[in-house]
Amino acid sequence: MNEKSQRYFIEIAYDGTRYHGWQIQENAVTVQQKLNGVLRTLLKRDIETIGCGRTDTGVHARCLYAHFDSPAGEIDDLNRILHSINALLPPDIAAKSLFPVASDVHARFDAISRSYEYHVHAGKDPFLSGYSWQLRELPDMERMNEAAAVLLEYEDFSCFSKAHTQVFTNNCLVSRAKWEPLGEQRMVFYISANRFLRNMVRAIVGTLMDIGNGKYLPSHMRTVIESKNRGVAGASVPACGLYLSEVEYPKEKVHIG
Length: 257
Known about the structure:
Blueprint: E1 5-14, H1 31-43, E2 50-51, E3 60-71, H2 78-88, E4 93-101, E5 113-122, E6 133-135, H3 141-148, E7 174-181, E8 186-193, H4 200-212, H5 220-227, E9 242-248
Parallel strand pairs: 3-9, 5-6
Antiparallel strand pairs: 1-3, 1-4, 2-3, 5-8, 5-9, 7-8
């Protein structure tokens, strides 16, 4: 980055229903494309944002951070710019905060933890359509939590990775994996890790659903993980129930809030 530039973090949230994920793609509408376009309009030059990660088509985000560089002094009123960004963004994308960071802080590589939620509900509910996966009945939460706890004992999650992804390692450190009730007919799965593989959360939830519905015992989770084979894990669940919910950074590098 040029010495006379300032790096900024921008926090956004979005309903992913209409988008082919976060990351820019050819011939597809994405969240990053919309954000870059708004910043280009306001700052009157091309802006390249770097996100903390990527979400797939139809996945939502309560919290996603991206960074971009701007000449020092170009942004003189953060609140005014944030207001202008929101005025230009479509209704299903919101900019929540904008703040300066040091020039060497990276939205993706400096993130130390990412958290997701997966929402399911039993029965038809028009107010949850597109934001939670509808089931005929809720699976056995106790069985699923017994299996989910196994995730914290392993690091290699090749079994949950989408095929032919270009990553150096399939190792992840999962620090939380638990289902909790959300009212009488709803449940949510919380999972946190230092990093996630493509399609990992949806494949994990699919595997847990097989266990919760009685197809396998909770011990099946060990069999799946130790196989390192995507074909042994459960099917990927629909994107509509998945949310990127939190991203954490070292406090000494990024002062959020």
